[in-house]
Amino acid sequence: MASTTVPTICKDLDGDDRWLAVHKRFVQECKEKDPEVMFIGDCVLESLQFTDFWNSHFVPLHCLNFSIRNDRTQNVLWRLQNGELENVRPRVIVLHVGTNNIGDSAEEVAEGVLAIVATIRSKLAGVYVVIPTLLPRGHQPNPLRDKNAAVNGLLKERCAGMDKVQIVAVDGGLIQSDGTISHHDMFDYLNLTNVGSKKVFEPVWDLLHQILTENEKERDLTPSE
Amino acid sequence: MASTTVPTICKDLDGDDRWLAVHKRFVQECKEKDPEVMFIGDCVLESLQFTDFWNSHFVPLHCLNFSIRNDRTQNVLWRLQNGELENVRPRVIVLHVGTNNIGDSAEEVAEGVLAIVATIRSKLAGVYVVIPTLLPRGHQPNPLRDKNAAVNGLLKERCAGMDKVQIVAVDGGLIQSDGTISHHDMFDYLNLTNVGSKKVFEPVWDLLHQILTENEKERDLTPSE
């Protein structure tokens, strides 16, 4: 079994126990809050919550963001199997993880993501899972961009036909004609600026809006409510 | 010689060459921009630039922010000796680095910071160096908080009497009465939220404002200008 699919607690290599403290807070937030949408993943989603686009577009949808900077698929898997999906009934989960699985093959990373999807399904049967494609990274073309593209291709294949699982292609517009990524979009060539966030996450917001509105319409069909 | 004081390029362990790409961009920005203030350091200053307080208070002072997430003292030292202080004449440099020197002693971290101050002095003789104390970290009390406090104590001693070097105590108010740090101040118990940034960096802004205004007053004393 690939290590990407084995739930793994993040070791406290620093010595201040931050990862576990953040996880425990997420578990507590599940008891206190009632999110419609949950963002779960890594640095890309973590930094998203400090952007203007998050505040203007995602906050009004009642979103919780359970993302930790360096997480790999196995760490997210551990978190979700240890309380971060308890006591909540979100309608949608947005998942971005895998770009930090530096040492793993595209096949292994895709398996890791699919293991997370399976865990979400087992905990929250009816929830919609939205998977923005892994973003390109690095100022210049490099092997990690190629691997992330390969992961995206594999996920697209394997999620095709799955009920309530939607891959959203979000990397359009980041890579410039000369192959570089601008720091105006990604300040460190990994995480998004305000400008980049709007560019990348607008299609995700569109889909969320559509999913949440469709549910409203279904409700409207029941006049007795 | 402690490794903290030896200029060290950050190895491209990921495989996408991001660190060097960011450094090269900083060197380029020195040629294009004319900052009054430069922020140089690690994750704490990197995340600061995405806060409301940065936009409302530091941007109007004409600040450049040359901070990279995981940098240790030796990495900042390398950057400053390889172009990030060329072609610029800032009046003040704000330096926060050392919290990522996990494996080094407080004495070694302090030496690293002092080596950076010496490099700044050798490149920009008249510049004011402002050093906010290393922030506490971790949700609960832990050895890294103690070490950062020890670094702060050493720096306070050794910088006493240095011309145009000012340590600013900035950790007041982060540690609550039960010893914990709130995620409202530090979302990951290392980096600051909007709320935490205001709390921590207001004294830094006050000092910058004072330094920049004093210079203005000195100018005003020269009627021939």
TrEMBL record, chains A, B:
Keywords: Hydrolase. One of its GO terms (molecular function) is hydrolase activity. Transmembrane segments: none annotated. CDD domains: PAF_acetylesterase_like. The keyword tRNA processing does not apply. Residues 64-196 form the SGNH hydrolase-type esterase domain. Belongs to the 'GDSL' lipolytic enzyme family. Platelet-activating factor acetylhydrolase IB beta/gamma subunits subfamily. This is Platelet-activating factor acetylhydrolase IB subunit beta. It comes from Culex quinquefasciatus (Southern house mosquito). The gene is 6044427.
